[in-house]
Amino acid sequence: MAKGGKAKKGPASGGQPPPQISHLVLFQGEAYELLSSYTTTHPARVDTDQPVGQSAVPAKEPEQLGPSTRRLVFSLADALDDLVNSAICLEKLEDTRVAVTPDGRIKFVEAIFVERKDLPSLREFKIRVAENYNDLAGIITRYLSPVSHCIPAEVTHLLYLMRNRAWEMRYLITYHSATVPLGNRSDLFLIMHSYVWEVLRKTDPGGYEYVMASLEYDPDWRNAVVNNEHLQKYYYADGGGLYESNAQLQGDEHRQVMRFNHDGQSHPLEHAADSSAPNGMLYNPVQLGHMYHANFARLTYSMQAALHAIDRLRCVGIKSLFSNDSKEYQEIR
């Protein structure tokens, strides 16, 4: 993994690390590549392909991090969150003291750990944690600099949280839509939608209204989705223009957007069958998820942020959709 293709085998981090984070420290002889080198040998990638079925009018926001890039960003955030949950932070987070193992795990090399119990106050610990997240945002920004012209909106939101609201938003930073595996993107939306509609609406009307009012999407979404031949079929479901004529949804744009995103992604192959297409289908569920993402790039993370603001994101059960297992991040085309 190091320069020349060979992984280094190195020492554990400087000093004796706290036992509760032993899994984040290299064991003697474990292979690794320093993050400072890894980001060069594994360049950042942003996928900008238009979704399947798109007409001559391009989708406005098709960008999403490539699988290996997404995995690295998630793994870094996950490792830092693991430290903080153990009441530990770093003297300073530097890419020369972060290791990437052959299986993509993040560990620390000669890092200086600072335990909460050794600091004079919780306030001091929070300040140091914020500094660590600011360091992480800087590392990720430098890593993405070669593709800075096409950074996805959700990544910009993630970096903003790291720099400005790290302490209170750690859970969202770790489990952010920007780093969910492609195959789980639709599931992330559907799980939150189900909670908002089936639970929050019935048990906390005020919280429900807050979440709905916080949703972000292109106000011209109707014209956008009909420029995709597959999304168009969902939009004109049953031949009646459901999202234009449904009396129950009239006057509530947020509910119409949520309904449209839910209906298609919960029945991902409803309009996919075609005997002349490969495997008998025009697109697969992952490709459908990209179609929705390209037209509603801000919807999922704005719903996440709203649920987090009312302390309901943790209970929804999205954590299992994220993984630093390399098998979860293989290319899906």
Describe the structure.
- By secondary structure, the protein is of the alpha+beta class.
- It has two domains: 3-179, Transferase(Phosphotransferase), domain 1 (Orthogonal Bundle); 183-329.
- The chain is built from 13 helices and eight strands.
- The strands form three sheets. It has a four-stranded antiparallel β-sheet. Strands 3-4 form a two-stranded antiparallel sheet. A two-stranded antiparallel ribbon has the order 5-8.
- α2 (67-85) runs antiparallel to α3 (122-144) and α7 packs antiparallel against α13 (299-309).
- The radius of gyration is 22 Å and the shape is globular.
- The relative contact order is 0.15.
- Mean pLDDT is 89; it is low at 1-6, 10-14 and 326-333.
- Residues 1-20, 43-64 are annotated as: Disordered.
What is the CATH class of the largest domain?
A: Mainly Alpha
CATH topology of the largest domain: Transferase(Phosphotransferase), domain 1
Beta fraction: 5-15%
Annotation field: number of helices = 13
Q: Major beta sheet, specifics?
A: 4 strands, antiparallel
* Chain-averaged pLDDT: 89
Tally of individual domains: 2
Q: Helix-strand pattern, N to C?
A: EEHEEHEEEEHHHHHHHHHHH
Radius of gyration, taken over Cα atoms and rounded to an integer in Å = 22 Å
CATH architecture of the largest domain: Orthogonal Bundle
Shape: globular
Any low-confidence stretches, pLDDT <50, length ≥5?
1-6, 10-14, 326-333
Region (Disordered): 1-20, 43-64
